[in-house]
Design goal:
globular, alpha/beta
């Protein structure tokens, strides 16, 4: 606008404001859940996880609870498609050729093969006449790890709205439900009496198998649409086949590499199976040969990877998980001795051990290419920041002033990283914590290209202290 009458014209130009980056510690969790028909879901607490994915998901996806318990910022759950459920046909009382009802695990997968059950029938007063009774039964369910459900005074009467076995299991059990229709349930036969001191219940569910490789691959691929995820963990229920497990973990590494090319760097987590230190070392030999990557972490023993991912997600992105404590875990089994710890570290496998006075700790935070986890996370944070800032200036870099403004914003971001302690100068102080250059050659300018050269020095965890003691006389 051009002024005709003398006066003052004021134009307000809004400064480019750099948006805040997504918080670190968002874990993409891939596995089999009870309610997986709604696709990818999120949970920031244990209650919201159970509400969204069902109570049985506490057992079919056991990494969720320790991840949340160790402080992960948020779970992004990608369900794996699986139709195989563990089941057991309970025989009918008075006729063992017929089925009274079939107990079915609420979530698919071989986890349900570990559910055991017992049934005990008895007569109880009806409360209407002094000598009148009715038949009821108690159903006891048990899962390894100490979980136990006892459902008492169950009835098969469809008119019984309070203790009908179909309704009680559907609403109150986290483990099983009844496959038949509500009005088709018959009186069950009691389970055989247990021997004195026996711990295993006599009825056992079975027949379930794990999802196939294509189902795991499809679930991992769905994480590509979740831009804020910076960690990935695949919960494989059947780890007996090490070669199959290695192929799934290789898919995780491929996914992380693809996302890093899109400036959405991620770190994958996996575990080494085995019931003895020797079995763990043998499995580690098979896995580490094909899973060498700066974007993958293998931990041992099995059963602790969820806690490790959760604790890593709770840390600032520039902090190392080395010697950090894990919560909510019993002593890892099998216990790894010093010799096993040394051998696993030489293979770039992260041992989880119990130390007196410290609790359960991560012995050393390494990726499978023997680099520190925190170094990779710092680099990924820098990449995400550069991408976010660069996108603000697309269409604004037509002159030197625009390119200078881009450089200033990048310097501002990197100075903040330096203040946080994520990047540091060289130990002798001669080299700065970062270097940045923004430029465009004549040919680049004709093609609409501006180049950014960036160098950062991530802080490294000091894992070793060498002391010299001079004994003076």
């Amino acid at each position: 606008m051009t002024l005709i009458i003398p006066g003052v014209e004021v134009t307000v130009v809004k400064e480019v404001l750099t948006p805040q980056l997504a918080p670190s510690g968002v874990l993409g969790l891939v596995g089999i859940v009870e309610k997986g028909d709604k696709g990818v879901g999120r949970a920031a607490s244990w209650r919201s996880y159970l509400t969204s994915f069902g109570g049985a998901s506490a057992f079919s996806l056991p990494e969720a609870n320790p991840a949340l318990g160790n402080g992960v910022f948020e779970l992004v759950v990608c369900p794996v498609a699986c139709d195989s459920k563990a089941r057991f046909p309970v025989r009918q009382a008075g006729d063992d050729k017929k089925t009274a009802f079939t107990l079915v695990a609420k979530a698919p997968g071989p986890w349900g093969n570990r559910i055991t059950a017992s049934i005990a029938s008895r007569q109880v007063p009806t409360g209407q006449k002094a000598d009148e009774t009715r038949g009821v039964f108690d159903l006891t369910l048990q899962y390894p790890g100490g979980y136990r459900e006892v459902h008492r005074n169950l009835s098969i009467d469809p008119a019984d709205g309070n203790r009908n076995v179909y309704d009680v299991l559907a609403t109150q059990s986290q483990l099983v439900c009844i496959e038949e229709a509500r009005d088709k349930v018959k009186a069950p036969m009691d389970s055989p009496a247990q021997a004195p001191g026996a711990q295993d219940l006599p009825y056992a569910l079975g027949g379930a198998v794990d999802a196939d490789l294509s189902a795991y691959q499809a679930a991992i691929a769905r994480l590509e649409n979740e831009a804020d995820v910076d960690m990935v963990l695949v919960s494989v229920q059947d780890t007996s086949d090490t070669a199959r497990l290695g192929r799934i973990y290789a898919d995780v590494i491929s996914h992380c590499d693809r996302m890093s090319a899109l400036s959405q760097g991620r770190i994958g987590f996996g575990e080494v199976p085995g019931n003895t230190p020797e079995a763990i070392k043998a499995a580690a030999d098979k896995l580490t040969g094909t899973l060498v990557s700066d974007r993958f972490v293998l931990v041992a023993p099995a059963g602790v990877v969820g806690a490790v991912a959760g604790m890593t997600g709770s840390l600032d992105y520039f902090q190392s998980p080395t010697f950090k404590r894990l919560s909510g875990l019993g002593e890892p089994a099998p216990a790894l001795g010093v010799e096993a710890q040394q051998e696993l570290l030489r293979k770039s496998v992260v041992p989880i051990v119990a130390q007196r006075g410290r609790g359960i700790i991560v012995l050393r935070g390494l990726t499978t290419d023997n680099d520190q986890i925190s170094v990779r996370r710092v680099a990924d944070h820098a990449v995400r920041g550069v991408k976010t800032i660069g996108e603000l200036f697309i269409g604004r870099l037509n002159n030197e002033e625009g390119r200078g403004a881009l450089k200033q914003k990048l310097v501002e971001f990197l100075v903040q990283m330096q203040k946080e302690g994520a990047i540091v100068p060289s130990t002798d102080g001669t080299d700065p914590a970062f270097k940045v250059s923004v430029y465009s050659s004549q040919q680049d300018f004709a093609q609409g290209i501006v180049r950014v050269d960036l160098a950062v020095r991530p802080v490294r965890a000091i894992d070793y202290i060498y002391a010299t003691v001079l004994v003076q006389v």
